[in-house]
Write a structure and sequence with these properties.
The structure is a homotetramer of 127-residue chains. With 127 residues, chain A is mostly beta strands. Helices cover 0% and strands 51% of the residues of chain A. Chain A contains no helices and 8 strands. In chain A, strand 3 and strand 4 form a beta hairpin. The model of chain A has no long low-confidence stretch (mean pLDDT 95). At the A-D interface, strand 1, strand 3, strand 6 and strand 7 of A face strand 2, strand 5, strand 6 and strand 7 of D.
Chain lengths: 127, 127, 127, 127
């Protein structure tokens, strides 16, 4: 049996970022959202600092997120509030820095129309 | 004529994972599903061990999948049952480990609404 | 002025592959299709050999595609016929090998329903 | 607190490119568009030169874009006009070259039908 104790990188970037301000459902599963899925396959908790970059003002952060050892956490940018909520309908980018290796994937669900639109990509891993 | 005997890596991760629990069609092609497409272009069978990571409990696995030499296999996470089925409407991540180089791509088809939503990404390859 | 004479790799793989057999429009732009977008930014023509891998039979190929110097070519798998058409509604993967560096991106448009679904990813580059 | 002063690469390529010529809404948020999201997390402004490659004629460019230090810029290919607008309903690819490290992600919103289709991928980073 394989033992994937640790996999990934410690610095990641997601150049795309945009939380649609509207949704055709208020069910949490269908509210328009932008997510950073973070996998920590290792044996130590990951302390992840997220910095948000904007088009026309200084970056905001760090947003502190802990992903326990051998756990995944799908972080919705919608839910980040400390130090400040992320405005809707606004272009942004993000950088994620962790003290242990993690894997990051970016996903958006857009429900501004009645039907869903989805997109995803592996984030950019800086080595 | 080129002879792509072997291509890829032996350790892969997909940080995103979520099987929608609902579908507007029961036709297998249109049931909401999450897939790991695995290419084994080499001359030896690939024995792939998949480990599933969750947000709030220990990882489950390995799920054993064989991809024969010079074949592709599009593995639906929906179909994995041993050692345990993957719950629907639940965040997860996966790590895939193979004894020979493979290439992994992640795809989701979401048919919770009448129209389809699709997303895909190359998985993260650990070198 | 920058002069991006050459960029990319010579061996690429796309683990996902599936041409939906149905479409709600016969307009070429809206017919369900699977595409390998190939950029040859260099000064020499790229001779690309595509091999198709299946789940339950031997690989088929090579399909020979030329991408002229400093040109792009969006190759629809639907259009490949020599040595054999690619069956619809069938899982496959592909390996692309070029004699000069190229960049490959995979895109699918699915119009089996009235509304469109799209997905894309950078292909896997083997170094 | 982490200090992600700089992250990324200086040469990027997006092999896919296609601006749908039609849209079911003229609201800027819903007009069919193709975007290169560019993150400059560093302390110096990024001067980015974009070259557009076509299937049947010489490349056009460079399109000059500045992304200020510690800012993001989501560049719509629809908006590029100098030296020439990018034709709609036409296959293209792009190469982005910067004087400082940046991160690039490619996104398309397609509103040719009433419902939205989205796709995204990290661009290809040449090292």
């Amino acid at each position: 049996m394989p033992n994937p104790t640790s996999i990934g990188r410690t610095r990641w970037a997601i150049a795309e970022g945009y939380i649609p301000g509207a949704s055709t459902s208020q069910d949490r599963a269908f509210v328009s959202h932008e997510t950073a899925c973070i996998l920590n396959a290792g044996d130590r908790d990951a302390h992840v600092a997220i910095t948000i970059y904007y088009a026309d003002r200084d970056p905001v952060g760090p947003y502190q997120v802990t992903v326990p050892a051998r756990r995944t956490r799908h972080v919705r940018f919608n839910d980040l509030t400390d130090p400040a909520p992320i405005p809707r309908d606004t272009d942004f980018s993000s950088v994620l820095e962790s003290d242990v290796p993690i894997v990051v994937q970016h996903t958006r669900l857009d429900s501004r129309r009645a039907e869903l639109a989805l997109m995803t990509t592996a984030a950019f891993a800086d080595d």
